[in-house]
Each structure stands twice: as structure tokens, then as C-alpha cells.
Design a protein that fits this description.
137 residues, alpha/beta, six-stranded mixed β-sheet, 24% strand
Length: 137
């Protein structure tokens, strides 16, 4: 069983009102079970009301600390843009998440799951495609 952390983020008041952070978290907890991942309750991390354009977010900093300490094998996010709106930041965070494992799993819809392996050029290109960016890496 892999040890994982869940990261969810919303930035706008409208998103907060629609309770989308709770729906992201709920979907990711179910996804973790499907993927046979152990997610301790204290590693369900939410940044409510923080822009994805900045890396300065309390929850994200906590997630980065867990990764730096080598305590997690996977990071589960609803979509890559929940980590960051900027592609360069997404790749930085994915690379940083755990150099020996380098896996971020994103669940967008029930039928679509992305595993982003960024240890190779092909993996970085796939991550770019999933993130909605088609610029050359």
C-alpha cells in the first residue's frame, strides 16, 4: 500500500460557496481507496481561498514539507491545475514531490485518471498535455 497525501484547492468566493473543495476532497478520498493508497487524515490538505498562481500557500507548503521529508509516495490532486495554474510550477512541484517516486495522480472525472511520471522526457510531455499545455518542453 502506498502512502499518499491529498491536496485540494479553491481560490474564488464562488468556488467556496459551491463547496467545491469538499467535493474535490471527497472524490480524492474515494480515489485513494480505489488505488489502494493509505492517506492519514492529517495528510488531507486543503487550501481554501488561495490562488493557484502563487506557490505561497499554507497547505501547499505543508505538502512540500511532507514530500521533502520523504514521508509520502504519491500526491493525489483532482486536476494538475489544483497544484498550480502555471505549468512551470506544476512541473517543479511534481519533480519535488518525491524524487525517487515522482508521481502525482490527478482525478478529473470518474472515468479519467492521470498518472504523471516526470522522470523522462516522455513523462514531462505527457504531463504538459494533461495540464492543458502543448508547448514544447
Amino acid at each position: 500500500m502506498k502512502t499518499a497525501a491529498i491536496y485540494a484547492r479553491v481560490s474564488s468566493d464562488k468556488q467556496k460557496e459551491e463547496n467545491t473543495i469538499a467535493s474535490q476532497t471527497s472524490a480524492l478520498i474515494a480515489f485513494a481507496r480505489e488505488q489502494n493508497c493509505d492517506v492519514p487524515a492529517e495528510w488531507v490538505i486543503e487550501d481554501d481561498g488561495y490562488s493557484g498562481a502563487s506557490l505561497l500557500r499554507p497547505g501547499l507548503e505543508r505538502l512540500r514539507d511532507l514530500a521533502a521529508e520523504g514521508r509520502i509516495q504519491a500526491v493525489l490532486v483532482y486536476a494538475p491545475d489544483r497544484l498550480s495554474r502555471r505549468y512551470a510550477h506544476q512541473i517543479l512541484l511534481i519533480e519535488e514531490s518525491n524524487p525517487s517516486y515522482r508521481r502525482v495522480r490527478a482525478r478529473r472525472r470518474r472515468s479519467l485518471v492521470h498518472s504523471l511520471e516526470t522522470g523522462s522526457d516522455a513523462g514531462r510531455r505527457a504531463a504538459a498535455a494533461v495540464s492543458g499545455h502543448d508547448r514544447r518542453i
